[in-house]
Amino acid sequence: MENEKEHHNENFLYKLISGELEQEPFGRAMCTRFPPEPNGYLHIGSAYAIHTNYAMAQKFGGNFHLRFDDTNPLKEDIEYVNAIVEDIRWLGYDPGEQIYYGSDYSEQIYQAAVTLIERGKAYVCELSPDETREYRGTLTEPGKNSPYRGRSVEENLGLFANMRNGGYPASSMVLRAKIDMASPNLNLRDPVIYRIIHAEHYRTGNEWCIYPMYDFAHPIQDAIEGITYSLCSIEFKDHRPLYEWVLEGLGIQAPPRQREFGRLSLTGVVTSKRFLRQLVTGGYVDGWDDPRLPTLRGLRRRGFTPESIRRFIEEIGSIRTTSTVDISLLDHCLRQELKEKTVSVMAVLQPLKVVITNYPEGETELLTVENNSENEALGKREVPFSRTIYIERDDFVEVPPKGYHRLSPGSEVRLKGAYFIRCEEVIKDPVSGEVTELRCTYDPLTKSGTGFTGRKVKGTIHWVSAAHAVKADVNLYDKLLLDESAPTREDGSWADAINPDSLAVVKDALIEPSVRGVGPEAKFQFFRHGFFNVDRKLSGLEGALVFNRIAPLKDTWNKK
């Protein structure tokens, strides 16, 4: 495809990897991986990383692995594992049978640590965590060697074996790589590569009480699986020398290579797993799948499709540094995905009763309405019409401003797919003065689809038949955070950052009967209101029907 070639020309990762592969450095097929820690749910930033690894493997005819970084039993759970697998498959980046677990390599990683000790490249250290930080130095001052750095190979091997056998309490000692305490890169100042954790692991149980650090386990796992490229976000760039040091220290031939891409940030959206957890545990949102969150579960529940998310990521392209993208681009991609695929139905969110006084009582008429004005292939449907209908309350004003083309006393509008009606009388509540009902007349000669060419009206409004309407609750979403720069809250207090209008619940909205019986995640375009999705969590509970607005019809992308 020509477009694909053009995209390749603009993709710095593709150009970089193409140049390296011309030298045939690996002697094996291209292979990438996505290594999530199963301690939370994936979010839109995760989707960008998954896409980068998956797409690059596809472009070079290689394989894509999903490998769980499950080397910390204090945080991980099978619930997250299952959710991550489900979300990745839902997105369309199915790894097939290529699903792996870092914990399955525990013995090999342990033996790799033993090899480093035997080669004089690792030692057991008994500094406390506070002492370790003190000895580490700063960005401007070199660190100091640990007093345990000079232990013999034999002593280190014995201590490390006792660590494995459970001979010491947690935090009493660690295994550290012996590199350079004066290195300008703090990651190379004798980093910890193994620590003691007495906790049950969700896969290995109590078989192990020592666990490798990610920076140590990661390159070894890549080497075991035959990964050629570890593609990760830019914050890991300073970790690359340690990645390479581990592989070199173990004598790995044709080792995998770490290459970095830019980190994706979105306006007004928190993608830090730590801060997302604060929002969830603090009760600021309705769980990890709250439709206001950028988690894949939240986006799916709100109604975003895998195709719209993939389109969003492809629109961004390959980025070199941390980049902030306007969240409205995601809405734009959703609209582009759904505008020709969804049925447009009539839904009245703030009902105002209208009685058509000259329409026969007790009569129901089926009117033919197009399903999508932009896609004739979606066909048409029949909608019931009767004497009493409901219109949107803001489609009527008693004193219309200049240029107002909807309903007002004495004026005429077209009911979408139906007739012209004229407002003849306004009924009000005698106490509050609120308009409670309109009395109107209709012109039977103005039925839609009959070729009527008489007088014209400028306004068309939607409606539902009172006797046939389906009741539903409708959730209208706005941005979760007031500040578009996505503030952080180290103390976990988000009360002053939350937009109080991020969720408005409309009870007992009235929708035409074509939506009766639809299943979870069914999507519609509500005439003039936007794109909506049947809530997969709340719909069906005690017969409830709940719609989430995915995005309004107005597209603000690149129009500010």
Automatic annotation (TrEMBL):
InterPro entries: Gln-tRNA-synth, Gln/Glu-tRNA_Ligase, Glu/Gln-tRNA-synth, Glu/Gln-tRNA-synth_Ib_cat-dom, Glu/Gln-tRNA-synth_Ib_codon-bd, Rbsml_bL25/Gln-tRNA_synth_N, Ribosomal_bL25/Gln-tRNA_synth, Rossmann-like_a/b/a_fold. It comes from the Bacteria. Its EC number is 6.1.1.18. Residues 31-339 form the Glutamyl/glutaminyl-tRNA synthetase class Ib catalytic domain. Keywords: Aminoacyl-tRNA synthetase, ATP-binding, Cytoplasm, Ligase, Nucleotide-binding, Protein biosynthesis. Residues 460-535 form the tRNA synthetases class I (E and Q) anti-codon binding domain. One of its GO terms (molecular function) is ligase activity. Pfam families: tRNA-synt_1c, tRNA-synt_1c_C, tRNA-synt_1c_C2. SUPFAM superfamilies: Nucleotidylyl transferase, Ribosomal protein L25-like. PANTHER family: GLUTAMATE--TRNA LIGASE, GLUTAMINE-TRNA LIGASE. This is Glutamine--tRNA ligase.
